[in-house]
Amino acid sequence: MTNVINPFIQIRRDLHQIPEKGFQEKRTQGYLLHYLNNLPQEHMEIREWETGIFVRVLGTDPSKTIGYRTDIDGLPITEETDLPFHSKHEGMMHACGHDFHMSIALGVLTHFSSNPPKDNLLFMFQPAEEGPGGALPMIQSEIFKEWKPDMIVALHIAPEYPVGTIATKPGLLFANTSELFIDLKGKGGHAAYPHQTNDMVVAACSLVSQLQTIISRNVDPLDSAVITIGKITGGTVQNIIAERARLEGTIRTLSVESMKKVKERIHALVQGVEIGYGCETTIDYGCMYHQVDNDVRLTEEFMSFVESETNVNVVECRHAMTGEDYGYMIQNIPGFMFWLGVESPYGLHHSKLDPKEDAIGVGMSMLISYLTKKGNE
């Protein structure tokens, strides 16, 4: 594989410079299509969907279709690395490794475009994983229904693991997630006359404290859940009592049932704030992602294959509170996701994330071997 790694490192660097928001990935899509259209086309079919792409590799004697998904969007983060291929899009960065994901997918696709297995392969370049969520509408598309795979595979880079290591587990891998936006509207006024107002900064602060009791008092201690309020806005200047305030946060749970209970309690507490502070409120849950629940048989089989047939180290990891809309893809189709070690001192969504590029070759080689095996069974 040594001779074919370098081009895909360059592709990663090209893509790293053009991160784009979900469903706005026009330059990224154009770059990918240009590359794909220059591959041998004899065994390939390419279809665009929104800002994403479906690519089907036609098998030599197909009895099933194996899917592979990669995500393509960036994050609204200002990059703070010193890389010579630094992001050219102000305020945007591939801080979650989607540039790595795309490069690996292109490398694997390049191999199979000239070496198709017996079965069909379906590569999905999915937009908007970071939001507002591209997986669910993608699998609801007519193209997906026509080319529907019998199983699906995906990876995600992991800065905490060394290059040459993958990590995954049968069963639950990633949590259920939901965004959380709460708006409060009261009555503003002069700071010297608080009795004539309904102060939404005070109401918002009280609500934040109350929300934290949900996890400690309404979720089974043997279960796990998280409510984080990451942003509070309210008011205009220091001597005016705020008429409006807004809380922005996220919810993470390890079960669908806990997500339902947490939201019921949020609704009840917000209603209490309405009464107690004499204000109006609205709740918006924004993007909601289904848990990534790895198919047990396929995951165990994959782990055994990597351990016995490759030089890659396999770790059985714990589940994580991270969210991934890939969970929708394997909700009704057998599949799994795994972590690919990239060894960076900075984590995902960090402005200084700098994964080791040797991991691109590791991911390509391993997936080519695995998909060759699965595609010729």
Describe this entry's structure for a reader.
With 377 residues, the protein is of the alpha+beta class. The protein is 34% helix and 26% strand. The protein has nine helices and 17 strands. Strands 1-2-4-3-5-17-6-16 form an eight-stranded mixed sheet, covered by helices on one side. Strands 8, 10, 12, 13 and 14 form a five-stranded antiparallel sheet that branches. A two-stranded antiparallel sheet has the order 7-15. Strand 1 (44-49) and strand 2 form a beta hairpin. Helix 1 packs across helix 3 and helix 3 (98-114) packs across helix 9 (358-375). The model has no long low-confidence stretch (mean pLDDT 96).
Task: Give me the secondary-structure topology.
Layout: H1 2-16, H2 26-37, E1 44-49, E2 52-57, E3 65-71, H3 98-114, E4 120-126, H4 135-139, H5 142-146, E5 151-158, E6 165-168, E7 171-174, E8 176-185, E9 189-190, H6 200-218, E10 225-234, E11 240-241, E12 244-253, H7 256-277, E13 280-284, E14 288-289, E15 292-294, H8 296-309, E16 313-316, E17 335-341, H9 358-375
Parallel strand pairs: 3-4, 3-5, 5-17, 6-16
Antiparallel strand pairs: 1-2, 2-4, 6-17, 7-15, 8-12, 8-13, 8-14, 9-11, 10-12
